Amino acid sequence: MNLLYLTIITPLLSFLLLVCLGRHLRPINVMIIGFSTMLITNLITIFTCIDFIKNTVPDMLLVYTRPLWTWFSVGDFVVPLSLTLDGLSLTFLVIIAFLGLLIYFFAASYLTSKKDIYTFYAYSNLLIASMLTIILVDNLLVMLIGWEGVSISTYLLIGIYYKQLRNGYAAVKAFVIMHLTDIFLIIGVFLLYQTLNTLNIREILTQAHDNLAIDSDIIFWITLMLFLGAISKSALFPMQSWFVETTLAPMPAVALMQSSTVVLAGVYLILRLSNLFMMSSDTLAIMTIFSSLTVLFASSIALVQSDVKRIVTYINLAQISYLFYAFATQNWGLSLNCLINYVVTSTLLILASAILLKKCQGERDINKLGGLVKLFPVLNAIFLIIMLSLSAIPWISASFYIKGDIIWGLMIKDHLMAGTIGLLGILLSSLSIWRLIFMVFYHKPKIAEFAKTKWISYCPIFILLIFTTAIFIYLPIPVQSIIPIAKYDTNSQLSFQLLLSAVTILSFVIAYIFYAHPNSEVQEVLNTPVVKIIIRLCSCDWRFDYLLSIIFVKPYQHLANMFKKDPLAIWDNWIMLGIKKINSYIVSFENGHIRWYMVSIVIGSIIILMLLVFI
Questions:
Q1: d(C-alpha 47, C-alpha 64), whole Å
Q2: Cβ–Cβ < 8 Å for 174, 257
Q3: What digits encode the pLDDT tens for the residues 499-553?
Q4: How remote is the C-alpha of 232 from its chain's centroid?
Q5: Are 92 and 28 in contact (CB under 8 A)?
Q6: What is the pTM of this model?
Q7: Which residues sit opposite 85 in a β-bridge?
Q8: Which residues form the NADH:quinone oxidoreductase/Mrp antiporter transmembrane domain (predicted)?
């Protein structure tokens, strides 16, 4: 564990090396540097895990701290820079390192352009270094460094094709959206310091438990600000726009941003401060509302999209919400299992979609694809397994138990509406992936030319497929004494599992009727005015960007036009104009007549004398 700092230093140095010299290196050398960086990070992670297991004592909390140096100090306010490793940070370290290695390996066989290879590995190294900074530091102020690094990395990865105006605009949009809620995070950090006089995470949790009352106003405002600061990184509604813009990046970059790095930042912040969030039931209720809105928003839009990338993105966005459902039910241990299931499933879906797009020569419209089941049976099988995981196939997939427990927790905590929306989200997400499979693989063929892909591209997918099965439902995660472990009453849970199974079967029946063999009756239903309005609304993302434009962009442009000329500069112009007028009037007195000068001197002397006498 003494080499822990190398997990941050190695990708950071690799980023600097590739930024400075990457343009002049051969693509194979860039791949070697990038993959070697992730390989070194994984080796250090393995050694750290072995060391952690050897030093763990039963019923004891192992916390390893490595002080580095003092960042700065102002009076009594000292900000030390040190790394801390416990079971929670180790879990995130393993997830990021392992998924990063698989994605880097996939990118080596997927990317072909020299510029894409250089930019992907350079910017991804910065993203990895930033994420590891977030999970390994023990001070909230130092964590903001990694937080900002994640935003910058996301901006760079989305803007890889910056010469296309749409991509440059999307990168700026993502950068702005992420920073909008960072303001709330900074306010939350300030409130914590003002209340507890420390920014050390362990001291915050200890002092908050001892000195602050449950459901007090200050706890509510602190947790609310921290949650609002986390929603942009976790892409919860209404801060999900940047998540959709990631589709403009290369697919390996999409996998890195949507599954194993950026989304984990907000999740880690809430998990790390879970004991603090447990003290505010109001914030947990607000978390439930945001999660429900995200499920409805994302799953309904995914159902009507035609772009493969956008379908995958909105399906992943809907799955993120179940993490926050688990937080809202205070089942923090289950949320970690949900997190592992999410990163595996979302990475699988993105990588499989990447191979599909590669084979179809970049064609992303599912209406122009079809009949691929005979040509690519392995790819079809992969999509079917992913579908089984997303639809929570009963007693086979890990998501059946994980999502089932999360929704069951909502139900027994009287969040019936949220639990119903959670079931609806599973139904709509299942329909979305079924629609993709039927239209791409089982409809009539529409294209004849396909590109070849390397068999080695499938290796990361085959590895990840193992983790979608029910064998890996509850992995032994070393988070005892770090996050609260909730235990629920399991009475009547079997009946709920039967209900969840019925939802899964219902999704298959509806998908078969609507997408496998659509008939005239189905078309009549789809052509009704109400359904057309709903489809049109979902196709344009609930007109969300239009609302943002009306509420924020248009007023800002109006104010900018009003103040195009600086108001202070206008006042300066009036003052200067007045001075010029007075000066021109005084200059006119210089007429060369001595009598006028003498009279002026006498009048001025009298005025001065009167001022001296009467004042």
A1: 14
A2: no
A3: 888 988 898 888 888 888 777 777 777 778 888 888 888 888 778 878 888 887 7
A4: 6
A5: no
A6: 0.88
A7: 64
A8: 138-428
